[in-house]
Amino acid sequence: MGRRRGTAALAAATVVAWVAVCAAQPRDSADLFHKGVESLAAGDYDKAVDAFEALADRGEASPAAAYDRGLAYLARVRGKSERPGDLGRAAAAFEEVLLVDPDDAEAEHAVELVRAEVARRRARRSEGEVQARPSLDRIVVGLAPEQVWAWSALVASWVLTAGLVLRKAPRGPRYLAGLIATPIGLVALLVFAPLAGYARHLRRTVHPAVVVVPEAPMLDASGAATGRDPVPEASRVELHEQSGDLVRIRYGTSEGWTHAAGVRRLRASW
Asked: If you average pLDDT over residues 15-33, what whole number do you get?
């Protein structure tokens, strides 16, 4: 009986402690956010960055916190206390806001300002552009969300099925409708089904990321230099698989490996 009481007491204490931690967690996050905002307003940009990064590490941040994190990095750059990669981390923060709300004009303008500054610095050193143009396949599949391609393929299959059924009718209006619907549904299905499948493949295997070092070298799978131009800071890249300390990235039409610490994966949802 004593052992049972002791076990029950231990379980009760564990539950109480777990509830206390869960109750304190949101409060701690709110305190971190307010600390970051206050530090940013007071001009203590290092503390502001630390507070917003702590929120991001918890996975409990918000678009507002991400935006303020970007402002903190920019403020540190303008305050002459810049650290290597600050512009890239600022761009990553604003890009996270745009993942949630692509129409956020302030975040979009902030990203443009960051990349313009990186481009200005690179121009002084006669180096290349900050953002490479995406390949044609990425442009096409990015014209619409994955759900649009999937629904379009579904509608195309219905049109094709209806056309095949109507073609079995005796010659007349229904037969003529079947003759028209069948090729339309077939062509549409051949277009939309691959786009839906490709969009789904990209969603499951590719993650958006931003370069957060002055330059990310393009390496081979063993980590050896390839001789290709490095990827500039603040550039948005596609993040593929990771192998040890290396990750495979795609920048425009160029693919290669680089150091994992040099890119920051964007948080797609909150």
From this structure: 56
